[in-house]
Design brief:
Number of strands: 25
CATH class of one domain: Mainly Beta
Strand content: 35-45%
CATH topology of one domain: Elongation Factor Tu (Ef-tu), domain 3
Distance between the termini: 46 Å
Radius of gyration: 44 Å
Mean pLDDT: 81
């Protein structure tokens, strides 16, 4: 027990001696704080912002399928895929076994075009077929010549046209013409034949007259353009989306097309919008090649995004030779703000101090462990947390020097 008390007392005495400094120790100078330094560099002052935009097209078309009165409108064929270009006078897609042709035109299809149809839409059809190389007059009248070219259009891509039957008494026949008789003609012919069988012995002229049959009524098959089997488009384009094979269509588009050049849709954050100073540059990498784009003027007001932050949407045109398969994909970009001037002496913002007169100074550290020397400077430019400075008076400052940016105890 005595030993334990002595040990405790000894420990307390040791601890007390450790906490009490001698007069000699108290007179020792305190160790100065350690100076934190940075190097003066020569560089350009720029700020960069990286992000990802979405490649879009300025003008698009959505082609829907006409729902048949009987059966279902189902995508039964897809001659085109995403990224393919429109081929005029060829099907965009097939719905329920029937083609939907792509033809050039500004007036949408709104009716079935048949024999004796006329108007702007017929003229547009004829012009589009002529552009595809078919020999056809552009007169706005859907006559036999137009019907013949329409028949050829369908058969060129492996489809049978939809026919209408046109009555005719011309007596001529063709591969699109059928000879049919009306019920009245048939009765007259049969009656005449019967009379001829019971009037034997009548004068020859009467017999000849009774035996002459009436002219049979003929019908000609004429190719039509059914409503829904032609999509008139204002210009060529690229398929950006197409319904899956076998999918049932209702109001949703079967094919979406992009007509104009591609652009990069970017939603600028408020911090980036604020930093823009007219020197900004935009670059993207397309197929491994860096490409500079023209930065558009930001004219829209900020709108709130899903998280409540402000965004400023811009659309930046891509080069004309940008591949169409970029449509709908994300593209990384970099915005660089600042000029291309290379400054001789640049320091971090933390190296800049204010003097009592309102000027700016830096603290030049000649040797490690020495007292920093105050050097008056003027600020030439700032950017990306850096400051371009120029020493004032007789002071000298150059790249490679060391300046103080703070101290730690």
């Amino acid at each position: 027990m005595v030993i334990a008390v002595l040990l405790i007392a000894g420990g307390l005495g040791f601890g007390a001696r450790a906490l009490v400094s001698t007069p000699a120790e108290a007179q020792l100078p305190e160790e100065p704080p350690q100076v934190v330094t940075a190097e003066v560099t020569s560089q350009r002052l720029t700020t960069t912002f990286d992000g990802t935009g979405v490649v879009q097209a300025k003008d698009t078309s959505k082609v829907t399928a006409q729902v048949a009165s009987k059966g279902r409108a189902v995508v039964s064929g897809r001659p085109l895929s995403r990224g393919d270009h429109v081929r005029w006078c060829e099907p965009l897609f097939e719905v329920s076994g029937r083609p939907v042709f792509a033809l050039a035109g500004d007036v949408p299809s709104y009716r079935t075009l048949t024999r004796d149809s006329s108007g702007t839409d017929v003229r547009q059809l004829q012009s589009a077929l002529q552009d595809c190389g078919y020999a056809i007059a552009v007169d706005g009248e859907y006559g036999p010549a137009t019907a013949a070219v329409v028949k050829q259009l369908y058969r060129d891509v492996g489809y049978e046209p939809v026919w209408e039957e046109i009555p005719t008494n011309t007596g001529s026949t063709s591969d699109d013409e059928t000879g049919t008789e009306t019920e009245g003609n048939k009765t007259e012919r049969e009656g005449s034949a019967h009379q001829g069988s019971v009037t034997e012995g009548l004068p020859a002229e009467s017999d000849a007259t009774a035996a002459e049959p009436p002219t049979a009524q003929k019908t000609v098959k004429s190719a039509t353009i059914p409503l829904g089997e032609v999509a008139f488009l204002p210009s060529g384009g690229t398929v950006t989306d197409i319904a899956a094979l076998g999918s049932q269509l209702s109001d949703k588009p079967a094919v979406t097309l992009a007509h104009s050049g591609l652009s990069l849709h970017i939603e600028l954050k408020a911090s980036v919008r604020t930093a823009l100073d007219g020197t900004q540059r935009l670059s993207v990498t397309i197929n491994g090649e860096p490409t500079e784009l023209e930065f558009p003027e930001v004219t829209v007001e900020g709108t709130a995004n899903d998280s409540g932050g402000l965004i400023y949407p811009i659309d930046v045109p891509l080069p004309e030779d940008a591949p169409s398969d970029l449509l709908g994909s994300g593209l990384d970009y970099r915005i660089t703000i600042g000029d291309e001037t290379k400054y001789a002496t640049v320091v971090p913002v933390a190296a800049l101090y204010s003097d009592p007169a309102g000027g700016s100074t830096v603290r030049l550290v000649a040797e490690p462990g020495t007292e920093p020397k105050t050097v008056p400077v003027s600020v030439a430019a700032t950017g990306s947390g850096q400051v371009a400075i120029k020493a004032g008076g007789d002071a000298e400052l150059e790249a490679g020097d060391t300046v103080a940016i703070g101290a730690k105890p």
